[in-house]
Design brief:
Blueprint lengths: L9 E5 L3 H11 L4 E5 L2 H10 L6 E5 L7 H9 L9 E5 L4 H6 L4 E4 L4 H50 L5 H19 L5 H6 L2 H7 L12 H4 L7 H8 L1 H13 L5 H12 L20 H16 L10 H10 L7 H9 L1 H10 L2
Parallel strand pairs: 1-2, 1-3, 3-4, 4-5
């Protein structure tokens, strides 16, 4: 069942009285391609097998097996079929019920050819206009989303360049997250169902913004070649709140799952599983799953890669440090997943310096 382009619109006529079908075909055949069915069951089968969906359906109300009201209710549950306008073929005493059930118009019996033609023509023109508006909105939304994605990705790269990471940290954390997420999904490990519901590919894309708040941290702290003192560390910790505020300011105008993941990750990726993290002291599964993943891969990358304030440490030593944080700093189930694919993590790190 697909939509397609056709020089003549298709009209589906559904009526159990053959004479009614013949009359409507005769009225409409000069302008439309006509397909027919004798009741609701047959009509739904026609729709499901159609290569090109009809532009409109003329649907009799009273039919055996499945009447018009029952067929329309079933159409409403299908995201594609519900978009096809339905004109009910009615008797005068059923017009109110026909319109209240969701039909766009009605045609009374006996049929008046000019009325039939005009009502079908008007509804098809409205459908075409609605479709064109919807397409325009979708194209504009896609354009806005693409621009937003590019802007946020550029912002993430700027932060990494400023942080003397040359963009590699962003790429590595995304690749680490991708490896872990798809390992969990491929083997149906704990959190697999939750990850599927959260649209994992969008989580991976959102990882790039985890440190967006560092744009508000002074260079003397961000680039300090040594350990931060207490006051400096408190300022550094505010990058999570700054990041949240940046994403929230965008969310007021554009609310997408992508931006929601960005907010969860940048705000919560320094929370700890035992509740001793920052900025909110969240614990356990109260921390968004996306942020728990980034918390783990971010620390792994910080350990095995050189930073302005430290040298890289060997992979095995990094794993030992992460093992010590299992169940305290890190989600234990995610930590176990990391150890299962530790070789893949090491390769990602080596290939993306």
């Amino acid at each position: 069942m697909i939509n397609g382009s056709n020089p003549r619109p298709t009209v589906l006529v559904v009526d159990d009285v053959e004479m009614n079908i013949m009359i409507l075909e005769e009225i409409l055949k000069d302008s439309y391609d006509i397909i027919t069915a004798g009741n609701g069951v047959q009509a739904l089968n026609v729709l499901r097998e159609a290569k090109i969906l009809p532009k409109i359906i003329l649907l009799d109300v009273f039919m055996p097996e499945m009447n018009g009201y029952e067929m329309l209710e079933i159409m409403k549950t299908d995201n594609t079929l519900r978009r096809i306008p339905v004109i009910f073929i009615t008797t005068s005493d059923s017009e109110t019920e026909a319109l209240s059930s969701g039909a766009v118009d009605f045609i009374s019996k006996p049929f008046l050819p000019e009325i039939v033609k005009l009502r079908v023509k008007n509804q098809i023109e409205l459908k075409n206009y609605s479709d064109s508006l919807e397409k325009m909105v979708e194209e504009k939304a896609a354009e806005i989303t693409s621009t937003l994605n590019n802007t946020l990705q550029t912002m993430a790269n700027i932060i990494e360049y400023r942080n003397l990471e040359s963009g590699s940290h962003v790429k590595r954390t995304q690749l680490f997250s991708e490896a872990m997420i798809y390992h969990i999904l491929d083997f149906s490990l704990p959190y697999a169902d939750e990850l599927r519901s959260l649209e994992p590919d969008i989580i991976i894309k959102s990882v790039a913004l985890h440190d967006v708040g560092k744009i508000g941290i002074p260079d003397k702290i961000l680039l300090k070649p040594g350990k931060l003192d207490h006051e400096e560390f408190e300022i550094m910790k505010t990058h999570t709140v700054i990041g949240k505020d940046i994403i929230e300011s965008i969310l007021t105008n554009i609310d997408t799952i992508y931006l929601q993941h960005c907010l969860d990750i940048c705000y919560c990726h320094h929370e700890r599983f035992d509740g001793k993290g920052y900025p909110r002291g969240l614990a356990g599964t109260g921390i968004p799953l996306s942020a728990r993943i980034v918390s783990l891969v971010d620390v792994y990358d910080a350990l095995v890669c050189a930073r302005v304030y430290k040298t890289a440490i060997p992979y095995e030593e990094a794993l030992q440090i992460i093992r010590q944080g299992r169940g305290t700093q890190f989600d234990p189930l995610l930590t176990d997943a990391l150890f299962t694919i530790a070789d893949a993590f090491e390769k990602i790190s080596q290939d993306n310096q």
